Amino acid sequence: MPPSSGEMRNEIQRVLFDEATIAARLDEMAAQISRDFLGCELTVVAVLNGSVMFGADLLRRLAMPLRLDCLSVSSYHGASSTGVVTFNQVRLPDVAGRHVLLLDDILDTGNTLHAIRDKLMKEAHPQAIKVCVLLRKDVPRARELEADYVGFDIPNEFVVGYGLDYMERFRNLPFIGVISSDAIARYSP
Ligand code: IMP
Ligand code: MG
Q1: 108 near 140, Cβ under 8 Å?
Q2: Which residues are catalytic?
Q3: How confident is the model at residue 78 (pLDDT cuts 50, 70, 90)?
Q4: Ligand 1 proximity of 106 Cβ (cutoff 6 Å)
Q5: Is any atom of ligand 1 closer than 6 Å to the C-beta of 183?
Q6: Interval between CA 71 and ligand 2 midpoint (Å)
Q7: Separation of alpha carbons 175 and 133, rounded Å
Q8: Mean pLDDT in the chain?
Q9: Nearest to 164 by CA among 147, 151, 145
């Protein structure tokens, strides 16, 4: 019998970043982004679903006017990357001539952000695209991709919480942690 959502915390083996730590880092990131994009026509493109918490908390720290668009892609199944990135909507956001800040929860293999950046560049004609991720995993990238803004560097472990999921669970944990191997086995596809 799987435990109820009230017991999600018990399935976390180790907390990496608690709420206060995340909040403090977002303050720093927002200050840097505000300085860098001063006077720009900024459009934030948030990659669903993982960047929902991060985006909501980061954008509320930015004082300048901006547009927000969301993109839904599928690229990940379970705890390992498939490498294939599928766009789930027909139309791309209108970012022609604008400065884009592409937000995602985590830079892992780089496949997702590489594919999105490439497609936006080729088909949506922005002025420029910068990449902002909450987490950057210490793994060799399948695709060359440098993030311009990084919240935290993490080791090569599967993490959940604060928007990040394992099999669509754990997104609503307020902190980021490593799930137990028991939980990985319990919810594995
Ligand atoms: P990519 O491998 O850089 O393309 O990352 C693809 C997506 O995989 C990210 O946007 C996340 O949604 C997901 N992902 C990668 N690593 C993790 C992880 O440790 N926990 C949860 N999701 C992850
Ligand atoms: Mg995911």
Answers
A1: no
A2: 108
A3: low
A4: yes
A5: no
A6: 13
A7: 16
A8: 92
A9: 151
What's the rounded Cα separation, in Å, for the pair 74 and 154? 23
With a CB cutoff of 8 Å and minimum separation 6, the contacts of 184 are 79, 158, 166
Q: Tokens 């017991």 map to which residue?
A: 7
The beta strand positions in 65-143, using DSSP E, are: 67-77, 80-87, 99-107, 128-137
With a CB cutoff of 8 Å and minimum separation 6, the contacts of 21 are: none
What stretch of H or E contains 185? helix 181-187
Is 6's pLDDT higher than 80? no
Amino acid at 165: D
Distance, in Å, from the CA atom of 166 to the CA atom of 136, rounded to the nearest integer, reads: 17
Which atom of ligand 1 lies closest to the CA of 112? 4
Calculate mean pLDDT across residues 99-124.
96
d(CA 32, CA 30): 5
Query: Strand, helix or coil at 108?
Result: coil
Residues 22-28, mean pLDDT to the nearest whole number: 98
Single pTM value for the model: 0.94
Q: Which residue has the higher pLDDT, 177 or 7?
A: 177
Choose which residue among 14, 72, 108, 113 to substitute to test ligand 1 binding: the one with the highest number of ligand atoms within 8 A of its C-beta. Answer: 108
With tokens 């300048």, the residue in question is: 64
Alpha-carbon distance 177 to 158, whole Å? 9
